[in-house]
Amino acid sequence: MIYDYNVYLRQNCIVPLCLALFTLIWFIGFLVSFLKEKNKKQLKFILFFLIPAFLITINLFPLLRGGIYLLFEKETDQIQVSGKIEDTMEIDSYTGQKYDTENNHGYGEIIVVNGEKYYLTTYGDFGVGDDVILDVLPRSGFVLKMERADAPSISETEDG
What we know:
Layout: H1 5-36, H2 42-64, E1 79-90, E2 109-113, E3 116-120, E4 131-136, E5 143-148, H3 154-159
Antiparallel strand pairs: 1-2, 1-4, 2-3, 4-5
Helix pairs in contact: 1-2
């Protein structure tokens, strides 16, 4: 399975970063106007404090999970990791970004190989115990390619 670097970059770095910055600017603008008012209402302040804080927090999860590294990592920085899938899990809707790709309209998946977590769109028909070879971005942990370790490579099947 091959995964699109641009989808990872857009959904886990660019969109959350822009939304978090926009929300932060909105919050600072509100705070400045609130402090200028002579009639300070506590409820209004609490509402306008909690909403941006919630929005910023939701948008920071993908960045903290490795998305921020995509600003500095390129597709060519990938390394190869091989091992056995120890665990698989779905990323929940609060901390995940919707990938909206052809393979998976969900929130993404995590696989654990050799004790390390790697993030991907979907692991398809792979499961716990499968031997895999992954091409991953080392700092962010996003998988760019995943194949079975015992499967013949594309060049071998063309020759044979």
